[in-house]
Amino acid sequence: MGQKVNPYGFRLGSFYPWKSRWFASKNQDFATSLLEDRKIRNFLMENLKAAGISRVDIERSFDKRTIYIYVSRPGVAIGRGGTGIEQLKAAMLKRFKIKDAGKMEIKFEEVKTPDLDAYLVAVNIAEQLTRRIPFRRIMNQSLERVKRSGAKGVRIQLSGRLGGSEIARRESLKDGAIPLHTLRAIIDFAKLDAKVPKSGIVGIKVWIFKGES
């Protein structure tokens, strides 16, 4: 029986870069740095929702952290005259107790086509579900937007008490090809949970096939 694997992890190192790029000299340093990376990501994902944050990559050298933040609305994150970056950096230095500001650099990268980013599509679906918009309408509209943006294939799956039903079930919608077993296929994948009023937790999964490398 075939086993499902995360399409991003399956292609990690071949087509997708690691989200944390550094080496540790000791096991203890590795654990400490990895935990700090996780806290940094959680902090940024929570505080930059309005900027349409997609992902956070972290590079470390001997005495410096470089944080790459991918957002769909960089103007919102950067702010007028770069004030947003300075405020964000100050908050992070205080939160993570970094005394030397020169040891942290923040760079913003623009996600030019948000409708081809699986995580941003999933976030948009979650926001609409919390506003209690009918889930089938959300799925159809999201699929159409992704297809119009140039995707070769897209699949959207929702699971939970959809529409407030008593029994949990799974609904999926697909258009085009999603060649999960083809390593040269560029497939973006995301999953997250949405807290929906009167329905509880609804799981969201999005696959987007962008073409072959």
TrEMBL record:
The keyword Transcription regulation does not apply. Pfam families: KH_2 (PF07650), Ribosomal_S3_C (PF00189). GO terms for biological process: translation. SMART domains: KH. The keyword Chloroplast does not apply. One of its GO terms (molecular function) is mRNA binding. It comes from the Bacteria. Keywords: Ribonucleoprotein, Ribosomal protein, RNA-binding, rRNA-binding. GO terms for cellular component: cytosolic small ribosomal subunit. Residues 40-112 form the KH type-2 domain. Binds the lower part of the 30S subunit head. Binds mRNA in the 70S ribosome, positioning it for translation. PANTHER family: 30S/40S RIBOSOMAL PROTEIN S3 (PTHR11760), SMALL RIBOSOMAL SUBUNIT PROTEIN US3C (PTHR11760:SF19). Part of the 30S ribosomal subunit. Forms a tight complex with proteins S10 and S14. NCBIfam families: rpsC_bact. Belongs to the universal ribosomal protein uS3 family. This is Small ribosomal subunit protein uS3. It comes from Candidatus Curtissbacteria bacterium RIFCSPHIGHO2_01_FULL_41_11.
